[in-house]
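Suppose a classmate hands you a notebook page containing two proteins, each written out with its sequence and a corresponding row of structure tokens. How would you begin to make sense of it? This section walks through that situation. The first entry is reproduced here exactly as it would appear on such a page.
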Amino acid sequence: MQKVGKGILVLAEQKHGKLHKVTYELLGKAAELSRKCGLPVWCAVAGPEELPVEELVFRGAQTVFFGADKRFDTPDELLLTRFFKQVVRDTEPGICLMGATSFGRSVAPRLAAALGTGLTADCTGLELDEDGRLVQIRPAFSENILAHIKTDTLPQMATVRYKEFPEAARDEGRKGEVVRVELPDPADRLAEVVSELKSQEADISDAEVIVAAGRGVKEAKDLGMIRELAELLGGRVGASRAIVDDGLIGRECQVGYSGSRVKPKLYIACGISGAPQHLAGMRESGYIAAINSDPSAPIFNIADIGICEDLYRAVPELIRKIRAAKDK
């Protein structure tokens, strides 16, 4: 198998000095590809001086290109795009990988356009063909088919869904090089973070328990019982696109093809019929419980347990029984 480019570059994501776990998953996949094509694994990251860049070495990066500056403490798509562009130009990787997080989905297209290369978004699989070219696999048509895509230009860029691959094993015995990268001129910054709004239900992709509400919820105030059930189970609140579009809950809670893809240990769908777009985001949950008054709702086809009942009766009863069990 021939080598395409000079390396495999993982574009890391961090916030307030904390590395996003999708970076470790990408490093694991990059190492797998490296074993097949013989290219070195690199990682580029920008953040505050105290960012634990050695963790990227422990996870498999042979070289870490580090832009240390407090300006990167909070995400800045424009400045980070310039930093990544500079690293790519200097290193000439054959493959660039980034997480398909909200931030990655904003940065990656900007970077691809700046580099004049292609980008395959939301990949669920990555392979190499016999010529060493990257085969980028992503679902299409609500996950009814899998598209296999190749990029003619270099670098071959892809964003990968969070929790699609296992994290790279951590080994503190690994050795690697950290290369400091000079950053763009501070005076040339095009955007500034004025304030940061944080939602209580943010980052549902990390939740082990999700209680999700659908169109069966009639009013925003009725989400109180959904939140109560989620809190009792130590989980987070999710939602279908329908009630997000209706303005009952924030988009950061949306589960589905156009929202977050989640894999909790327990997923409770309340008043969700089970449209293909929603199922695409949660069907790989460990255990699925569905509450719906329609016995023909598609959600029952993938549920481990189904409760054919009005959620306004079933959810309060679940809350009552869980509280009673906790009080014993």
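The notebook's second entry, a different protein, reads as follows.
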Amino acid sequence: TRWLVTSPSGRRREPREPRERQLTFALEDAEQPLFSPDGMQLGFISFRPQPHEEEEDDRREDGDNKRQVFLLPAAGGEARRLTEAAEGVEVFKWWPDGSAVVFIGQSPLSMAERATRRRRKDDREDPIGVYSEQPDYELWLQPLDGPAKRLLGGMKSLEEFDLSPDGKWLVYNTNHTGLPQDREKPEVILRDLDSGAERRLTVGRGGVEGHPCFTRDGRFVVMSVWADPQFAYSRQDLLAVSLED
């Protein structure tokens, strides 16, 4: 459930006007609320079955619901589903000018893989393989009107990303394998969205370098790092990498 809270320093509030109001009323959770750059729409991730879908199509192969991005007018009204991600949406952000959203989702399985898994399920074959089936992840651009476009694919690890203010660059981090033993070995990658050229921004200190984001002027990428790269329980510091060097 999402609530809107008006700022005490904003417009004058009538004596009986509530300072907060509930925006969503669905039974499922509404997560990751993000206002569009112009403040006119609220995007969020939720699971809401659609009338044209069968119940089986609402769930991923691992049993989780396929959550999608919904848009809600900031002034109130009905939310509409924006994305049609084959395996649901993990995380999303607005495109800098508000004309689209960018989201991470799992790559869909091939028809052969789906058939094999369903046959094993029907035959009650339930082998437990630890890290034997690592999913691939994709990054998609979904305009508010029009078809989606894939920006990245075939990634075994893709959790965090950001977009430059001019929409020309993407920064993300990955450990390439998605395996637990590589959890503390992520690399921060800068990608030119026009040419596809990439370069590493990782500075090689060791330890986790994560949560990359652009500064508002687009001149730096800021990331969190372990103050002491040898210890996971070390405090977190911020590191700024100049893109003009």
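A careful reader of the second entry would note: The first strand starts at residue 3 and ends at 5.
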